[in-house]
Design a protein that fits this description.
The chain has a domain of 141 residues: Beta Barrel (Porin). The protein contains two helices and eight strands; from the N terminus they run αβββββαβββ. The protein has an eight-stranded antiparallel beta barrel with strand order 1-2-3-4-5-6-7-8. It is elongated and about 60 Å long. The relative contact order is 0.14.
Length: 218
């Protein structure tokens, strides 16, 4: 009887000893990867915390806003236009090439740029020669300092000041080169609306011409 009691006692102790081991084996939390306790924020892209307001330039994935300075190059812009010459008066057709000089201009906290604007215009207008009113062909070569501000990806505005090397219809017809001398001075304001990445509309208001036309960027 003593041996049977001892055997029963030993079996009971063995069974009790296996219970905690079985409980641990059945606990699903014990199968988790130790690395899963890490902060999920550690998997984030290291660049995710950087300021996304830095403009990377037109066409480079940045958002264009007037308060976001531009980085990267500026495009060459060709304007083809038609309109009116005030001195004559006359009709005017021509073009401008805007060559970038400073990618982000004199105001470092804004999206602005400096260009050299050069071109050529043909004029067809009225002039007076020996008391007679005639019509004839003239031409001009504008050379201007062009300062442009970019409000959005599509919309910008600019101001220009410079010289218009002016050959009026009177001069072409044999008259004086200084006829309508005001045509030598250039002062204009304008705007540009890009309806695609490389094409848009442009308007210039001022002296010596007011014109509108097509803008192409390269």
């Amino acid at each position: 009887m003593t041996m049977r009691a001892t055997t029963r006692t030993t079996l009971m102790v063995a069974l009790l000893a296996t219970v905690p081991a079985l409980a641990v084996a059945q606990d699903p939390s014990s199968d988790q990867d130790p690395s899963s306790d890490q902060d999920p924020s550690s998997d984030q892209d290291p660049g995710a915390g950087q300021d996304s307001s830095v403009h990377q330039g037109r066409g480079a994935g940045g958002t264009v806003r007037i308060d976001r300075p531009h980085t990267g190059p500026r495009p060459l812009v060709l304007d083809v236009h038609g309109g009116a010459l005030y001195f004559g008066p006359a009709l005017a057709v021509g073009f401008r090439v805007n060559i970038p000089l400073v990618a982000n201009g004199f105001l470092p906290t804004l999206d602005n740029a400096i260009f050299l604007s050069v071109g050529a215009d043909l004029y067809w207008g009225r002039y007076v020669d020996a008391g007679m009113k005639n019509r004839g062909l003239g031409f001009g070569v504008p050379v201007a300092f062009h300062w442009e501000f970019y409000f959005t990806e599509r919309l910008s505005a600019f101001a220009e000041v410079g010289l218009n090397i002016y050959f009026p219809p009177a001069w072409v017809g044999g008259g004086s080169l200084v006829d309508d001398a005001g045509g030598w001075f250039l002062a204009q304001i304008g705007g540009r609306w890009m309806f695609s990445e490389h094409a848009g509309l442009v308007v210039r208001l001022g002296t010596p011409t007011t014109v509108a036309g097509l803008a192409l960027s390269f």
